[in-house]
Amino acid sequence: DARVTQTPRDKVTEMGQEVTMRCQPILGHNTVFWYRQTMMQGLELLAYFRNRAPLDDSGMPKDRFSAEMPDATLATLKIQPSEPRDSAVYFCASGLGGGSPYGYTFGSGTRLTVV
Amino acid sequence: GNSVTQMEGPVTLSEEAFLTINCTYTATGYPSLFWYVQYPGEGLQLLLKATKADDKGSNKGFEATYRKETTSFHLEKGSVQVSDSAVYFCALFPYSGAGSYQLTFGKGTKLSVIP
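^ inputs. structure came back:
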């Protein structure tokens, strides 16, 4: 089965450090999402791309978060500087978009702990 | 805007019990509807989908019927197993003319099945 690959799987970092999370979408998928999941807020959409262009990043704190797709096989989410409130599981998902998608495929997530 | 409302959890059932998780939605036009499942420590997986009114999605013994008249997509299973313990998310994808490619998720319902 084709998979969305996220690295690292787990990350523990100190407050103030830069964190970069990576996602390899399924080959051929042209829509990529970043979600954050916490117990309190549930699933929050941070940003998404279509054909590598950012379509919506309104869910992202702009002062510290940035999301990019340097090429079709890599999406990155960066936090600088990181804060304890950023501790969460970050999921990447990819799909074909379009009018009625056949679901989006999620990666296994990056569990971020900021101490 | 679009929204999805799921029944509050957690839901605890005995093995072989009947499961219903309610989901209602608000959207314009004819959205596509999905159920995703998240097992502990994993990402979300597509469980089933329905793309038009009266469609029934089914997978692994789970079923859900797209009811336009009641704007609902309730998840059901006739006999749950311990292995069904997970968090279930109802989701909506807007109709093709909406110009959006993002899924709107409900807050999730945690199901625990005890032997």
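The interface with chain B takes residues 4, 31, 33, 42-43, 45, 48, 50, 55-56, 91, 93, 97-109 of chain A (CB under 8 Å). The mean pLDDT of chain A is 91.
thumbs up if we can close this ticket
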